Structure formats: C-alpha cells, structure tokens
Amino acid sequence: QVQPVESGGGLVQVGDSLRLSCAASGRTFSSGVMAWFRQVPGKEREFVAAVTWSGGITYYGDSMKGRCTISRDFAKNTVSLQMNSLKPEDTAVYYCAARAGGEYSGSYLYARRTWYDYWGQGTQVTVSS
C-alpha cells in the first residue's frame, strides 16, 4: 500500500511560482509512475505531468506544458511539481497519483486517471488576479 501525501498548495498571485511536493509513504517501489493531476469543481480530473520512478522520464499534459517541471527524489521518496508563471485558470485542487510498476507499459497510459492505483487527498492551489 502506497499513500501519497501532497503539500505546498496555497494562495498566490498571477505570475508567481509554487512548488508542490508529494511524499509516498508506506510501501516503496523500485519501479512505477507518479503523476500530478488537477481538478476544478464540475470538471474531470486533468493530467498535468508524470515521471517514471526508476528512469526519471517525464511527460507533460497540455495544460501546463512549458510552465511546470516534475521531478523525483529517491532519497526522500518524493515527487515535486514546480509551477511557474501561474494563471488564474491554474486554480484547482492538485492531486498526486502513484502506480507501482508499469513504467514500460506505454506513456499513453500516464494521462489516464484510472490507470493509477493510489491517490493523495489533494492540495488546493488558488491563483489570484
């Protein structure tokens, strides 16, 4: 059982940067994929970025491509999402997701929220204009 726990959300201004972290507690895995999604009320959860755990290969959705960077830290068992040039439309609850294994299943799967086994509770990001 892996329990992702997000942190780092908050209220920021347009153009600011924010760094979200996800600590994967519980059983650790040597291979897998961790990702960030976001959701606003009334809309489906949207893929932001993913990183393969052992290979460190990154993938980005269209929503924040070019404005965010996902990275993982083996020693701390964490995944971070650095977000820059934030816009009001980035306001959402950001969720961390994890899947044990599946790194080589195909990157087309990484954007599918149903593909992940474990989810955090989410952290609110509000971008004020």
Walk me through what this model shows:
- With 129 residues, the protein is mainly beta.
- The protein has strands at residues 2-7, 10-13, 18-26, 32-39, 46-52, 58-60, 68-73, 78-83, 92-100, 118-119, 123-128.
- Strands 2, 4, 5, 6, 9, 10 and 11 form a seven-stranded mixed beta sheet that branches. It has a four-stranded antiparallel beta sheet with strand order 1-3-8-7, with no helix packed on it.
- It is globular.
- The mean pLDDT is 93.
Distance between the termini: 40 Å
Order of helices and strands: EEEEEEEEEEE
Measured as a percent range, the helix fraction is under 10%
Q: Main beta sheet: strand number and arrangement?
A: 7 strands, mixed
SS-derived structural category: mainly beta
- Tell me the radius of gyration: 14 Å
Mean pLDDT: 93
Low-confidence stretches: none
Strand segment count: 11
Described by the principal axes of the CA atoms, the overall outline is: globular
Provide the β-strand percentage band: over 45%
Number of helices: 0
SSE layout:
Blueprint: E1 2-7, E2 10-13, E3 18-26, E4 32-39, E5 46-52, E6 58-60, E7 68-73, E8 78-83, E9 92-100, E10 118-119, E11 123-128
Parallel strand pairs: 2-11
Antiparallel strand pairs: 1-3, 3-8, 4-5, 4-9, 5-6, 7-8, 9-10, 9-11
